[in-house]
């Protein structure tokens, strides 16, 4: 039934490529590239076509097929599959390239380094040692055509066609009949008398000497050329001369040859060979040895071949992490090798491991990941970031280790562009509000403000309107001087995200208060920002048609392109303050706990103020500064008292806590504005900050009084003056809408800028104000103690198993 017969070649699970045979090595086999049909993985296929009248060659090919199938060693060509029919033989092995082709290609690209050649020869000698000493086999075909190189640069010994037993059980060495291969035979084989004393490995070691000569000098023209070492390294010449000596008895065993070459100053005594030997035995090494090896590996990777790093080091690193408990020490070499991968390879090999690492509870692992996030963030897609990485990263905001909190904040610069609406505008803002309000480390509060300024352009328009002004205003009241600078820079970096009304009524009053800050760096940045906002207002005042252009980004959707300004204004905070943060955390872990209790007072202009830690300053002789500073101290003291006494609880409990104290925050806002002229057109806190107050966020301490005070009698609007400009035109004045006042207020023709007004400010009773503020603080303290007592009484004793959240 011939029509039921199937072609075994067609059913073979591997297929040959259409390219011509590679290298065309001498011998019965033709080497083809191929791939597996099921997976597409690359392989090499050795093909022998059975020809009539060539029975001897056919028997040699079948013997090689059998030997390669049964011999397994890391330095011998790896057998995968095979096919034997009446017409052909197919041997499928790992994807390899003939050594001659490989050396020629590398020579065109700049040549092989000596350390690569040393490791390649080491592998060939080790394979010979395995055959002679462990298997009792003589290879009988060591030459350039019998060595192949895989994709990692590993040298593999093949060409097992003429192998025979060292005991002579199979009748001695087979006849080759190929002149290209017979030129490597040692001279003693020509003596048929058998009187020459030799070892079983003598012939193979002679052929090894021929291989070494060809590796460094090119094809061997004749046996007499072996007398001249040529380009063979000096450290290898003495051992090479032993191999090609005329006396076969003195040729060393392959194992002893390796020992000689690995001795002090030997050709195979280098870092590359040591690294490879350690990787081969890594499974039996002690954990301490593995830790030390991976720590030193990163320094050596730059001098190692790329193919070796990608195909040998990388798999070992991945295996060490998943099964060897290597921990965070593998991250540095892992990401260094990852730079050599293509985007597709990175997604397949590195990203799954990185995602798994983020779920680790090892703090060293987490902080290393955060520090090196810049190296792999571009390979992470948005769904992976939002569902598998961000939920684990946010735990760092609540960590008790300041270094992890700091790195978590800085990592948001990279994660923010990939976060979805809820994670960015809700979850992240909750954590930022908590860090800026109550973190004990001043540098972390500072970096939180800087990070918010940099990611402000990614926030939605409604979130920007609720958060940015309040957050930066809070930062300007921070006792840590760099945090106040960061607040000013945050305003400047996001200047295009505020309406003119916010600039005039909310931002400039805050910045003006910083012009008398005790720190010179804060004052300098405040003046710079004030000039920027004033120039913006002045430009619109001169040309009202620019209003739409100036406010085009206020209600625009989040745009990554708007982040460039933030990077230029606040770049110092991530570089300079980053190192400052680490120093302060290491040297003064509890320094900021005292910062909140230090009242800031200005120093005289002649005395320099130390930075960045605020210290109590000497009393000043300027009565004007004292008047303004007492009002500022009153607001800061009340805020500090409230931050220290408030039971913050968890993020989920913040809403209840803030709603319960809403009336207290309103009274705080009234106290902070005592003695100052209030701004017109005020909005109630319920309408402005309702959603964020419910979450206990930025607006605490930045609420204004519900009942604006009327202007002093005799006050005249600036819009009523003719400032020396042209006659009023038909153009609408955009600033008229910013200054809506009650029409019932009288407008007598009195100049507020006159000398009488300044004299009234100077003669105001400061002692009465201080006494009033002290009484209010005392009343608020008693109210807070009463409310806390009521809460504790209502809650009752804690139940068994319950845990009080910080």
Mean pLDDT: 74
Q: What fraction strand?
A: 5-15%
Instruction: Give the full name of the CATH homologous superfamily of one domain.
Output: Transferase(Phosphotransferase) domain 1
Main β-sheet, spatial strand arrangement: 1-2-3-5-4
Q: Gap between N and C termini, in Å?
A: 84 Å
Number of helices: 33
Principal-axis shape: elongated
**What structural class do helix, strand and pairing data support?**
mainly alpha
Query: How many DSSP-defined strands?
Result: 10
Indicate the low-confidence ranges by residue numbers: 561-711, 715-764
CATH architecture level-2 label of one domain? Orthogonal Bundle
- What's the quaternary structure here? single chain
Describe the SSE topology.
Layout (H helix, E strand, L loop, with lengths): L7 H4 L2 E3 L13 E7 L5 E8 L5 H16 L8 E6 L3 E7 L1 E3 H10 L5 H21 L2 E2 L8 E4 L4 E3 L6 E2 L13 H4 L19 H16 L19 H7 L10 H8 L9 H10 L6 H14 L5 H18 L7 H8 L4 H7 L1 H8 L4 H9 L10 H12 L8 H14 L5 H18 L3 H14 L5 H15 L5 H13 L6 H14 L6 H23 L4 H4 L13 H24 L3 H5 L27 H23 L8 H7 L1 H11 L12 H4 L1 H4 L61 H8 L3 H30 L11
Antiparallel strand pairs: 1-2, 2-3, 3-5, 4-5, 6-8, 7-10, 8-9
Helix pairs in contact: 4-6, 4-8, 4-9, 11-12, 15-17, 17-19, 17-25, 18-19, 18-20, 19-20, 19-21, 19-25, 20-21, 21-23, 21-25, 22-23, 27-29, 27-33
């Amino acid at each position: 039934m011939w029509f039921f017969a199937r072609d075994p070649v067609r059913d073979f699970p591997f297929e040959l490529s259409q390219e011509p045979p590679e290298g065309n090595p001498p011998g019965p086999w033709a080497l083809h590239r191929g791939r597996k049909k099921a997976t597409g993985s690359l392989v090499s296929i050795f093909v022998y076509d059975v020809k009539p009248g060539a029975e001897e060659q056919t028997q040699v090919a079948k013997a090689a097929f059998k030997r390669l199938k049964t011999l397994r060693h890391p330095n011998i060509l790896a057998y995968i599959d095979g096919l034997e029919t009446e017409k052909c033989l197919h041997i499928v092995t790992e994807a390899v390239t003939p050594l001659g082709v490989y050396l020629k290609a590398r020579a065109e690209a700049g040549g092989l380094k000596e350390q690569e050649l040393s490791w390649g020869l080491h592998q060939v000698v080790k394979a010979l040692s395995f055959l002679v000493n462990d298997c009792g086999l003589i290879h009988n075909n060591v030459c350039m055509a019998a060595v192949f190189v895989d994709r990692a640069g590993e040298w593999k010994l093949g060409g097992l066609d003429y192998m025979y037993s060292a005991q002579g059980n199979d009748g001695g060495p087979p006849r080759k009949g190929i002149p290209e291969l017979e030129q490597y035979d040692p001279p003693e084989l020509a003596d048929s008398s058998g009187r020459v004393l030799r070892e079983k490995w003598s012939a193979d070691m002679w052929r090894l000497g021929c291989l070494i000569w060809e590796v460094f000098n090119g094809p061997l023209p004749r046996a007499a050329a072996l007398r001249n070492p040529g380009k063979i390294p000096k450290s290898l010449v003495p051992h090479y001369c032993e191999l090609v000596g005329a006396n076969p008895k003195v040729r060393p065993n392959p194992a002893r040859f390796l020992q000689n070459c690995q001795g002090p100053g030997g050709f195979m005594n280098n870092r590359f060979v040591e690294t490879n030997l350690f990787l081969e035995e890594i499974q039996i090494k002690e954990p301490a040895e593995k830790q030390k090896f991976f720590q030193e590996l990163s320094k050596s990777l730059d001098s190692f071949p790329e193919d070796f790093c990608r195909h040998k080091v990388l798999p070992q690193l991945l295996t060490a992490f998943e099964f060897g408990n290597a921990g965070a020490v593998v991250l540095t070499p892992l990401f260094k090798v990852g730079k050599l991968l293509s985007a597709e390879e990175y997604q397949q090999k590195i990203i799954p491991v990185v995602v798994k690492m983020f779920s680790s509870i090892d703090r060293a692992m987490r902080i290393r990941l955060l520090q090196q996030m810049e190296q792999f963030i571009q390979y992470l897609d948005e769904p992976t970031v939002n569902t598998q990485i961000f939920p684990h990263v946010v735990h760092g905001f609540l960590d008790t280790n300041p270094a992890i909190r700091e790195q978590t904040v800085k990592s948001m610069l990279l994660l923010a562009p990939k976060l979805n609406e809820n994670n960015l505008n809700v979850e992240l803002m909750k954590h930022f509000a908590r860090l800026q309000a109550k973190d004990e480390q001043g540098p972390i509060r500072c970096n939180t403000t800087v990070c918010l300024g940099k990611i402000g352009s990614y926030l939605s328009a409604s979130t920007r309107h609720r958060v940015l002004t309040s957050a930066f205003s809070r930062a300007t009241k921070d006792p840590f001087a760099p945090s106040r600078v960061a607040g000013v820079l945050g305003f400047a970096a996001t200047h295009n995200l505020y309406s003119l009304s916010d600039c005039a009524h909310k931002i400039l009053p805050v910045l003006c208060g910083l012009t008398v800050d005790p720190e010179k760096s804060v004052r300098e940045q405040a003046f710079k920002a004030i000039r920027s906002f004033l120039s913006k207002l002045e430009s619109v005042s001169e040309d009202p048609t620019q209003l739409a252009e100036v406010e085009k980004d206020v209600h625009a959707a989040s745009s990554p392109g708007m982040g460039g300004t933030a990077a230029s204004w606040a770049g110092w905070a991530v570089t300079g303050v980053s190192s400052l943060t680490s120093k302060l955390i290491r040297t003064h872990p509890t320094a900021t706990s005292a910062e909140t209790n230090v009242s800031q007072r200005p120093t005289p202009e002649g005395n320099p103020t130390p930075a960045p830690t605020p210290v109590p300053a000497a009393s000043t002789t300027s009565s004007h500064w004292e008047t303004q500073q007492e009002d500022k101290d009153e607001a800061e003291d009340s805020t500090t008292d409230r931050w220290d006494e408030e039971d913050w609880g968890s993020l989920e409990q913040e809403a209840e806590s803030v709603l319960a104290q809403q009336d207290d925050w309103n009274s705080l806002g009234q106290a902070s504005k005592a003695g100052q002229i209030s701004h017109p057109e005020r909005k109630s806190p319920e309408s402005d900050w309702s959603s964020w107050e419910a979450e206990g966020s930025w607006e605490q301490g930045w609420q204004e009084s519900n009942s604006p005070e009327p202007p002093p009698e005799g006050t005249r609007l600036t819009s009523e003056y003719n400032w020396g400009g042209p006659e009023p035109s038909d153009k609408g004045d955009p600033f008229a809408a910013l200054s809506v006042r009650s029409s019932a207020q009288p407008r007598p023709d009195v100049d507020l800028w006159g000398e009488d007004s300044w004299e009234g400010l100077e003669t105001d009773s400061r002692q009465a104000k201080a006494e009033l503020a002290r009484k209010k603080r005392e009343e608020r303290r008693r109210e807070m103690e009463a409310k806390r007592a009521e809460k504790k009484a209502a809650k009752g004793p804690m139940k068994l198993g319950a845990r009080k959240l910080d």
